[in-house]
Amino acid sequence: MIRDTYVEINLDNLKYNLENILERVEDTVKVVAVVKADGYGHGAVGISKVLMENGAYALGVATLSEALELRAAYPEYKIFVMGYTPDNQLHAVVSNDLIQCVFSLKQAKILSALGKTQKKFPKVHIKYDTGFNRLGFKDCPESIEAIKEIMKLDHLCVEGIFSHFALAGDEANKKQFKDFMYAVSQVESAGKTFKFKHICDSISAIDYPEFNLDMIRPGAILYGMKSFRKNDIDLKPVMSFKTKVYHVKKLMPGEGVSYNFKWKAERESVVATLPVGYSDGLPRNMMEAGQVTIHGKRAPIIGVICMDQCMVDVTDIPNVQVGDTVILYGDGQQNTLTIEEAAKLGKTNKNEILTRITRRTPRVYIKNGEIDHIVNHLLTGASYAYQKQSK
Ligand SMILES: *Cc1c(COP(=O)(O)O)cnc(C)c1O
Fold first, then answer.
1. pTM above the 0.85 mark?
2. Is 80:32 a contact under the CB 8 Å cutoff?
């Protein structure tokens, strides 16, 4: 049923990370578990239940379609669309009880009108830009006036206001926080207050506990990714990426491998072919630097990585056979490549390594050491999962 190239998701480690984060922050701080980009490649539907059952307040996504995928799977969970939704799609935000990011009076009015016709009170969080210059009301007096207008609309529940750090250094972070708090106080001086004020992502939530306010929005740390500049927290890696050897052959000196013979055997060599390529998410520019782990030993990726396959040199690993397990990314134990190392070799960042893994690759969810369920998007459709036989 499943492909031999797959991603293993350790739900126990995901739970461990969330619990550690919850323990670290004040009891009053709500956690929006960020599961955009298909849960950073871990499968948003597959991980959201564990997150919501273990203390997350809401799920955070970037787009409406990500929210709708989750809504179809989980009718009850709070889902926050942190990105922009075009005007002509806002009706779906309202009918699906999503929480929407808003940064214009115009969109707030549309949502309020939709709330009236659909007999609902759409929840919104106002996005306030304190310098990142991505989304949000520009930090200026006109914006404060517009937000005060939004607060007066009927049929709209202005639940929160938020900003995002550029993480451009301690001084810049502190200035962003100060500007955010000043803007909030300006708006609140008109009388109405926000239930949730928030600005922290993963790094800032841990590095600046004093900026956590009412809510934090961690993504990377849920998945065990650390990039802190000041503090630390114990986290476990959640994802490993595995495949199997599909072919083994001996090469004579001078024989080439893959397109353009970028690699040529300098000695009698043993080469294994793996059914994983750049379309599965293995960075193509790992061709001259990548490594995989077989029998606890590192094998270099040789030649050009193809769309669906790649070759590794196993000359120095005795007795490699068809069907042997290959670890592309692991937890660093038994000589496996961590996501961090993979990011270095692929000349990118950790989140890109995670989110690149495409939906052709099945996700196998592990709970209490056994397979809980498997999601194979190609066989089962986006939000359908094979449940464990015994359930
Ligand atoms: C992606 C995102 C986050 C989470 O970022 P991490 O660095 O992974 O914690 C938080 N807030 C917003 C608005 C985001 O887009």
1. yes
2. yes
